[in-house]
Description:
single chain, alpha/beta, TIM Barrel, 8-stranded parallel β-barrel, globular
Amino acid sequence: MTLFPSACVWAENGPIDSTLTRVKQTAFHYIDVEPTTLDAPGALQKQKDLGLQVSCVALDHNAPAGCSWDARSDGSLRKMVEHLKATLAKSQTLGAKVGYVGPGKDRKQLKAFREAVGELAEAAAQQQIKLCLEHAPGSALSTGKETLAFVNEVGHPNFYLLLDTGHTLISNERAWELAESAGNRLGYVQMNDNDGKKDLHWALLDGRLTADDLIRTLAALHKIGYGGTLGLELKPKLRTTLISDFSRNHNLLLRLQLEIERQAK
């Protein structure tokens, strides 16, 4: 089963209808969005006309003021939960199958966060959306390993790990090993590269990530039966454009999977 790339389109600064058109011309069938990405006039219709499917929504991106996982007041956390419930309902109308959040920075708030994501996982299940948690360097859950342990501790059947290859480079983890450890608790995968120090979101193979790393990761995803898309969360370097990075990484991921299939025969 081929794992198709999905273009995280929120990094493009131009008009969204133009971005969607160029993404489609680059042979993508799937896009990842922020909650407000398709709010511009005509954007939703353009997405439908192009036949692009929304794969995943970054639920807590651009949350309104007063929403925080780290705030000590119950009001701020409750405001975040209610905001995300509304965002889940909106994501369902977009046809998204997956949504994700990231942790806060204060480890003292993890108990409250645990209760909140359990409530959100249930709300997401009602919308037929998988709720995922992203591991994030510098946060209260900075490694994939501890984030997976947190997911298992919450124990909700609709709560999963989001694996980010760029973040594993910073935390010195192997993405393929993390994927195998997660197994059916792996809900989504984002792919990007960096220098091993900062979360730069370079295109694949522009930093520390090697082709062998990618092959091992893709092979692990096939092994565990992962059936989602591969979210390309990229920001162009000075010498490139986002669309050109999308194009070469789209082709790279499909080519590497063909190589894996040939080697398996």
